[in-house]
Amino acid sequence: MNIPKTSFPRIVIIGGGFAGISLAKKLNNKEVQVVLLDKHNYHTFQPLLYQVSTGGLEPDSIAYPIRKILKDFPNFFFRLAQVKEIKTGDNTLVTNIGNLEYDYLVMATGSTTNYYGNREIQLNSMAMKSIPQSLNLRSLILENFEQALLTDQYHEREALMNFVIVGGGPTGVELAGALAEIKKGILPKDYPDLDTRKVQIHLIQSGDRILKEMSEKASSKAEDFLEGLGVQIWKHTRVTGYDGKTVKTDTDTIFETATLVWAAGVKGAGIRGLDAKDVLARGNRIRVNEFNQVMDHDNIFAVGDVACMQTKDTPRGHPMMAQPAIQQGKNLGENLLRLLDNKPLKPFVYKDKGSMATVGRNKAVVDLKNIKFQGVFAWFVWMFVHLFFLIGFRNRMVVFVNWVYNYIRFDREARLIIRPFNRNYSAFKD
Ligand SMILES: Cc1cc2nc3c(=O)[nH]c(=O)nc-3n(C[C@H](O)[C@H](O)[C@H](O)COP(=O)(O)OP(=O)(O)OC[C@H]3O[C@@H](n4cnc5c(N)ncnc54)[C@H](O)[C@@H]3O)c2cc1C
Asked: Transmembrane residues, as ranges (predicted)?
């Protein structure tokens, strides 16, 4: 990898997400050599992926070059690399661009979509965990409408205009709301020769309420908002299969659709070599102690979504959200420096700053520690917080200008099929 050996200890971070970047910032200008590896050369602001999928934002405005974040950091090296294996015995990583030795290793690899072993759903559904996947979904949504114009088969047209989203967490809720707004504000203008009133958006949730990690008030208000926008919510319904045409559930309900979006779960993005049964907790996350140290590995740490720190207050680990990732990254940065100074480590304490979700224009729900609110003010708070956490001044400005423009013009101009998604429509012909 052409990384020089120095007298400083080498800390290798796998992953330039929220956790990896906040850790890297803490190690800036210290007596360590830091190597950051990521399979992408950019950091992705995942909370706004649904806006890319629905043409509200260009992908460039929610991605930021990792090299630019690290550009003034001395003793820092970035390599575009996919890590394939960790040889813990040799303190070595195996990657697609060669091997690399480490003194300390930090897993900040985040999470991947969890299909719970259902291969059929994995093959035929759309996920929304990365920018390429969001662009695929954007193309597919638009291609479906182009195709709906061409068919003279009633059932095919219905299936093309049916959107089924599985998972009533923030991702599913935000995507459903955005699709409903497109149906209302954009489709009638773009497709005057298509009866876009027939567009249906279904949100399927296995439990008894959507946004189950938030307060009951937030759940019921979000449900009201979505139903007001015309989204059909199916609770107590578990999707069991999708062959690319028919969605099967554990009830009598089935859906015919060309688009199933799977937002029903994530699991830790593990790497071979650190995947023994006793290392992994529920959801493929790596068990760590209160210092984010991986059990039985003194020089290996895990932070963010991939880490499972089971405490009395968090028996299933911390929520797989940006704030725990950022806070763990910061705390680990301080702890690594303490470790090198032979000082005692500081246990991680999560400061829950609350959670929020938007359902659409003027509609959001916010749960803070002492106050919960919904509606227009919540929507402004949601926008402010997301702008604040975006990396890069340019990105903040572009997103802000886009939002103002979209708000005034009731528009989403990035509805472009730049990179077509090759959907096989033949299944709908018969
Ligand atoms: C659609 C969506 C909406 C979300 N909305 C919210 C929200 O509103 N609020 C909120 O708090 N959280 C939200 N989240 C969750 C939040 O984005 C994650 O909790 C957060 O990104 C976790 O940070 P992380 O650093 O652990 O992982 P990530 O940010 O996922 O970063 C992991 C990095 O590791 C890299 N990587 C992985 N494996 C390898 C490998 N083998 N080799 C090299 N590189 C690798 C990846 O390329 C990536 O850059 C959302 C997530 C999604 C998908």
From this structure: 376-393
Residues of the chain with pLDDT under 70: 427-430
Active site residue 174: yes
53 lines ligand 1 (CB under 6 A): no
CATH number at residue 216: 3.50.50.100
Which residue's CA is the nearest one to ligand 1's atom 44? 38
**Which of 109, 126, 129, 327 best tests ligand 1's pocket when mutated (most atoms within 8 Å of CB)?**
109
Q: Is 2 part of any domain?
A: no
Domain stop point among 313, 340, 367: 340
Q: What is the Cα–Cα distance from 160 to 152, expressed in whole angstroms?
A: 12
Q: How far is Cα 36 from Cα 42, in angstroms, rounded to an integer? A: 12
Alpha helices in 151-230 (DSSP H): 154-160, 170-185, 187-190, 216-228
Q: Which of 140, 164, 141, 160 is nearest to 150 (CA)?
A: 160
Q: Is residue 352 part of a domain?
A: no
Residue 150, both tokens: 């061409």
Q: Rounded distance, CA 161 to CA 144, Å? A: 7
User: If you search the block for the tokens 């439990």, which residue do you land on?
Assistant: 207
Cross-strand partners of 290: none
> Which one, of 160, 137, 158, 134, lies nearest residue 147 by Cα?
160
In the chain, how many domains are there?
2
Q: What is the pLDDT of residue 212?
A: 95
**H-helix segments, 213-263:** 216-228
Cα dihedral sign, 73-74-80-84: negative
Tell me how far apart the alpha carbons of residues 354 and 57 are, in angstroms, rounded to a whole number. 25
The alpha carbon of residue 343 and the mean position of all alpha carbons in its chain are separated, in whole angstroms, by: 36
Tell me which of 143, 156, 174, 181 is the catalytic residue: 174
Render pLDDT for 236-252 as a digit per residue (tens, 0 to 9).
999 999 999 999 999 99
User: Which pTM was predicted?
Assistant: 0.95
In sequence order, the 6+-apart residues with CB closer than 8 A to the CB of 46 are: 129, 322
